[in-house]
Amino acid sequence: MTLTIDNLSKRYGDTVALDGVSFDVRPGELFGFVGSNGAGKTTTMRIALGVLAADAGDVRLDGKPVDLEVRRTIGYMPEERGLYPKMKVGAQLSYLAQLHGLSKSEAISAVQRWTERLGIAERLGDTVDSLSLGNQQRVQLAAALVHDPNVLVLDEPFSGLDPVAVDVMSEVLVEKAHSGVPVIFSSHQLDLVQRLCRRVGIIAAGRMRAVGTVDDLRAGGDARLVVHAPQAPTGWADGLPGVTTVEHDHGRTVLSVSAGIDDQQILKTALETGPVHEFSLHQPSLTDLFREVVAA
């Protein structure tokens, strides 16, 4: 199944929350949806789930509008805690599974399976508010998974998790994607997004600024060239086309280099100042790319 977000627009008075947002999430894909606070990520996800209505545009699953029946097949994990704090974990997950159409016995079986997978099976008899924030997050993911959804939509699923819990949740999301489920998640942990996702979308001020594979987007961004030339004066690279000095300290210079620039010309210029001990090119990380896109 393919989840299609098609030209979504949303305003709150004079504030433009979304302005023609479009992208898709394909079968078996982990899609990273990144942006600053207030960029429009949560609004997009809420519209996809039918929690909010768009002013224009639509959301489709395999070409079909997302109505109530389709929404029952989607697993959603909101950024805010969406659980009943005084209700016991097991009873709550079973109740939510039955709301999605599972029988009582199917719900009990699914709850046991997913709580064991997420490492919280021993907390079934505890109330949600007695759990740590990390375990509450695991319960919230279990609630999104317990009905075996056809699509997963997760808003900041890694927030508040320790490294072990991040690994567990990452493995689960990768497994679901490998089973053919389209998975979209937002996160401020861009190194994690870069590691898990083949494709990402970057949103800023309600507009999609970039959508594509991580490798393609990184290749299109400005690379970083590290040059260690101990005798080179400050500003030695000034004037070279497509080159901007980012940092210069004790002969170590970090340059921002546009795509297609001849690095041999840069090396020649550096050698004119004296010996060069290091000359290494680094593709921008997703974090570097995000800063460039948002600042543009």
From TrEMBL:
<keyword id="KW-0813">Transport</keyword>
<feature type="domain" description="ABC transporter">
    <location>
        <begin position="3"/>
        <end position="230"/>
    </location>
</feature>
<keyword id="KW-0067">ATP-binding</keyword>
<dbReference type="InterPro" id="IPR003439">
    <property type="entry name" value="ABC_transporter-like_ATP-bd"/>
</dbReference>
<keyword id="KW-0547">Nucleotide-binding</keyword>
<dbReference type="GO" id="GO:0005524">
    <property type="term" value="F:ATP binding"/>
</dbReference>
<dbReference type="InterPro" id="IPR027417">
    <property type="entry name" value="P-loop_NTPase"/>
</dbReference>
<dbReference type="Pfam" id="PF00005">
    <property type="entry name" value="ABC_tran"/>
</dbReference>
<dbReference type="Pfam" id="PF13732">
    <property type="entry name" value="DrrA1-3_C"/>
</dbReference>
<dbReference type="InterPro" id="IPR017871">
    <property type="entry name" value="ABC_transporter-like_CS"/>
</dbReference>
<comment type="similarity">
    <text>Belongs to the ABC transporter superfamily.</text>
</comment>
<dbReference type="InterPro" id="IPR025302">
    <property type="entry name" value="DrrA1/2-like_C"/>
</dbReference>
<dbReference type="InterPro" id="IPR003593">
    <property type="entry name" value="AAA+_ATPase"/>
</dbReference>
<protein>
    <submittedName>
        <fullName>ATP-binding cassette domain-containing protein</fullName>
    </submittedName>
</protein>
